[in-house]
Design goal:
Length: about 290
Amino acid sequence: MTISLPALLSQLLLGLVNGSFYAILSLGLAVIFGLLNVINFAHGALFMMGAIVTWMAMNYFDISYWVMLIAAPLIVGVFGVLIERLLLRWIYKLDHLYGLLLTLGLTLLIEGAFRSAYGVSGLSYDTPDALTGATDMGFMMLPNYRAWVVVASLVVCFATWFLIEKTRIGAYLRAGTENPRLVEAFGVNVPLMITLTYGFGVALAAFAGVLAAPVIQVSPLMGQNLIIVVFAVVVIGGMGSIMGSILTGLGLGVIEGLTKVFYPEASSTVVFIIMAVVLLIRPAGLFGKEK
């Protein structure tokens, strides 16, 4: 089997686009699990919600894509705050299974509500005028919107990593999950901080949904298949590892793209094969901390 260099490089770039979605979605999961200790199975539904809220705003109210790139994460983030305040706050001290079951139930409710309103057929909105067209890379024509997805995802991912790992706010967040009473003694409102953290993690999922909608059709079920892969990314990178989620998401997107070139039949399972191997060798994940 002979693969031309242009075909290989073009598949690498397309894999990087998919990896960008994996990175930003797994980052939201890692933030929520690492700081709140909750397995947020509703992440895929909230990803979908960000895309559909944007579609509704653009089609019903003629609001621009650029406005919704900020507004949709805020709207879905507020919805996440309500979820945390009304439901999740009661299960933090319980087994992880309770959080998993609760967020799975939320997923079914959210997806069911949007499925009743819009059915399961795909919706789509146009690529912003500023990002239409493509750039000649020599070996392929790279759509400008896909290049934007990669750049925007990387900026948001590494800005989030810097916020959590290198700033005082991030230090308070990490300390608040380990010893909330000590942090409260310094005048920090730990319950509010936890609520906003969940809202922020949810907003990351919605941001990914806004980015994804011009690339893949918007559907109430668009998050179902993707969230399974994203959970695998988080496990491989290490549950709760911010940098692990970013690097693993990007890397697995590229590996998945290469697999489509050399052995297409395995492209849908290669992530899970890697997950099984990593768990056998290093159960905490590539970047996770061994207990």
